[in-house]
Amino acid sequence: MTLCDQPQGTPRKAPSEDDLATLAQFRTALRRFLAFSEQVAADHGVTVQWYQALLVVRTYRGAKHISVGELAEQLMIRDHSAAELVSRLAQAKLVRRKTDPTDRRRSLVVITRAGDRRLSELAAVHLKKLRDARGVFMNFFRAAAESQ
């Protein structure tokens, strides 16, 4: 049960100094990874949001397709923002739009070969960084489990 799941009025155990230090270390590691991700994306000529969108498009439903609305939901952005994002990705030839054969009003998004290549380059760098930093993240989860 998380803090958000606890009924109101339920007494909560105050976090220890070690718990707080672990959270601070995790937050720092996460922020460093996000900053790294932004820089790597920029080095590859895309924004981190483009990278995240390519990752979702490529993996959603086994890379068959994703609607603009589903992409918005996955990225936690508004539909019109997702539509603009898809337009920019399509202009860069990283994705293409196709009409949904079951509902011609709906637009589906598919990754292109160029998008798949760009995603592969970015994902490889991100995975290496995560593997290199896994100790920091594993320590957090170990410490969190021990404090329960």
UniProtKB/TrEMBL annotation:
InterPro entries: HTH_MarR-typ, MarR/SlyA-like, WH-like_DNA-bd_sf, WH_DNA-bd_sf. GO terms for biological process: response to stress. SUPFAM superfamilies: Winged helix' DNA-binding domain. GO terms for molecular function: DNA-binding transcription factor activity. Residues 16-148 form the HTH marR-type domain. SMART domains: HTH_MARR. Gene3D superfamilies: Winged helix-like DNA-binding domain superfamily/Winged helix DNA-binding domain (1.10.10.10). This is MarR family transcriptional regulator. It comes from Methylocystis hirsuta.
